Amino acid sequence: MNPNVSKLINLESYSTVYQLVSTIESSIELCDYKDENPTLGKNRNDTYTRKCPLVMKTMANCFPPGSMTGAPKIRSVEILANNLETSTKTKTKSKRGIYSGCIGYISAFKAQMNWSVVIRTIISKKNRSLGVAPISQFEIGAGGAITILSDPESEWNEAITKLDSVLYG
Q1: Quick one: which H or E segment has residue 115?
Q2: How many Å apart are CA 101 and CA 67, to the nearest integer?
Q3: Which ranges carry the Chorismate-utilising enzyme C-terminal domain (predicted)?
């Protein structure tokens, strides 16, 4: 693998925020399906993981994105899993729903992929519990990076600004 940082901390300006963006590119060895994959069509996911472990390991190591978890990443994820993702009252896992993730593609024809972190996304859900006709319900997740220096009111204002960027563009 040969990672290359083509953009490092590039400042992008949007209507409500300035965003620092870095672009990291790399080439990794892919497998040839026709020559190496006699089970193509029978169980593609299992075969792909077995025959192309570097691609799958590379993707798995990218998530969750550090910009969503905080740093140091491994410890932040442990804290999220043990505290935020678990109800303090019942000690059971809670379901926050989608907050962020990624969107992208893998091209089998050009042997390339392109992924981006998704944040501040509107999720549409149909809710039939309020009557016969389905009612659309929309959810938007917003949050902030809490540090020892965080001010609760400032963090709240930042979360509202992030919501406004989705609602009012």
Answers
A1: strand 112-119
A2: 11
A3: 56-162
Average pLDDT over residues 45-63: 66
Amino acid symbol at 45 = N
Q: How far apart are CA 114 and CA 46, in angstroms?
A: 22
What pTM does this model have?
0.50
- Helices marked H in the chain: 33-36, 44-51, 53-61, 66-69, 73-79, 152-167
- pLDDT-derived band at 80 (thresholds 50, 70, 90) equals confident
Q: List Cβ neighbours of 150 (8 Å cut-off, separation of 6 or more).
A: 144
What is the pLDDT averaged over residues 82-99? 63
CA R_g for the chain: 20
Measuring CA to CA, how many Å separate 151 from each of 13, 122, 146, 157, 165?
25, 27, 9, 10, 21
